[in-house]
Amino acid sequence: MCGRYALHTHPEVIALQLGVQGGAGIDARSTLAPERLAGWKPRWNIAPTETMPVVIARSDAAPQLHWLRWGLIPSWANDVSIGAKLNNARAESVTEKPAFRQAFSKPASRRGRCLIPADGYFEWQEAPAGVRGARKQPYYLQQANGKLLAMAGIWDSWQSAQGELFESFAVLTIAPNKEAALIHERMPVLIADEDRQRWLLGNPTEALALLRTAPDDTLRTHAVDRRMSSARIDDAQCIAAVKLNEPDEESPETKAASSDSHQDRQGRLL
DNA sequence: CCAGACGTTGTT
DNA sequence: GTCTGG
DNA sequence: CCAGACGTTGTT
DNA sequence: GTCTGG
Q1: What is the mean pLDDT of residues A187-196?
Q2: For residues A240 and A60, what is the distance between their CA atoms, to the nearest angstrom?
Q3: CATH topology assigned to domain A4-265
Q4: Does residue A95 approach strand C to less than 7 Å at its CB?
Q5: How far is the CA of A255 from the C1' of B6 (A)?
Q6: Are A70 and A46 a contacting pair, CB within 8 Å?
């Protein structure tokens, strides 16, 4: 789950919406630093191993936007390749897993909890069993109120033998709410505006209390074109709503009144 | 003691 | 780094 | 997460 | 089937 997302909102707007300090407070490594901002471009189809703006608070300092690589590389890893597999961390076990627990429970200058800003994320719905040639249908999920999502994550640092520093993150996952459950059995942990500071700077007990499924009716979803399944495709079409064609022969007559949403495609879940 | 794992998702 | 398994 | 590759020798 | 790349 949550192996792809979109972030097309400009970093200055991200900072405003997520309460990240800009202006004088930023350091040279901030996404908002002029030389780093120059490299920014809107992204519609972000895959693991890519480097994206993430909100971190180094050693309890004021939260800032920094570029981190998606796919957590623990400090003890032999190489970066493990990161491709650790793009998610289960909320139910994040305090126990050796690769994750320090980042969660013992934040420091080079590891900790983070917020991953996203305009929305993608989820693939399994095709109904027995449908020949059926492939997974991707959906785009975004906040119903149009605001940015703040996904809960953890981050760590790894240094190569050549001394190159890699800062990387994983997205926490949990059981889905009502809308997400129609598509998939997991969803990212979402942090409400009023909980951001507590998530980033609170003690482990406070942070643990925020690992909850988002309330129902806070997300809206629509099917998107399958061409975005290739991570090489990265344009605004990736998040555009498409109307799904009904299965031609498999099911008897289906009611034609189908929205552009998932409501005509269910049956497996719930 | 050292060696080896350290993760999730989805599928069977 | 730290835990588990042998 | 999905898509795409999965290999060497020798020649250009 | 399994790993790598994006």
Answers
A1: 97
A2: 39
A3: hypothetical protein yedk fold (3.90.1680)
A4: no
A5: 50
A6: yes
Chain E nucleotides with an atom closer than 7 Å to a protein C-beta:
4-6
Residues touching nucleic chain B (CB < 7 Å): A 1, 74, 76, 85-86, 88-90, 93-94, 97-100, 124, 126, 173, 184-186
Q: Kindly indicate whether the ipTM for this predicted assembly is greater than 0.95, answering yes or no.
A: no
Nucleotides of C under 7 A from a protein CB: 1-3
Residue A253, CA distances (Å) to A76, A127, A129, A132 in order: 57, 19, 19, 18
Q: How confident is the model at residue A23 (pLDDT cuts 50, 70, 90)?
A: confident
Footprint of strand E on the protein (CB under 7 A): A 3-4, 47-50, 71, 81, 84, 231-232
Q: From CA A196, how far away is CA A186, in angstroms rounded?
A: 22
Q: Give the pLDDT score at A131.
A: 61
Nearest protein residue to the C1' atom of E6, measured from CA: A231
Nucleotides of D under 7 A from a protein CB: 1-4
For residue A113, CA distances in Å to A18, A27, A232 come to 15, 19, 29
Question: If you measure CA to C1', which residue is closest to nucleotide D4?
Answer: A230
**pLDDT tens per residue, range A142-161:** 999 999 999 999 999 999 88
- Model-level pTM? 0.89
Beta carbons within 8 Å of A183's beta carbon, 6+ residues apart = A123, A124, A125, A139, A141, A176, A221, A262, A269
State pLDDT tens for residues A61-108. 899 999 999 999 999 998 898 898 899 999 999 999 999 999 999 999
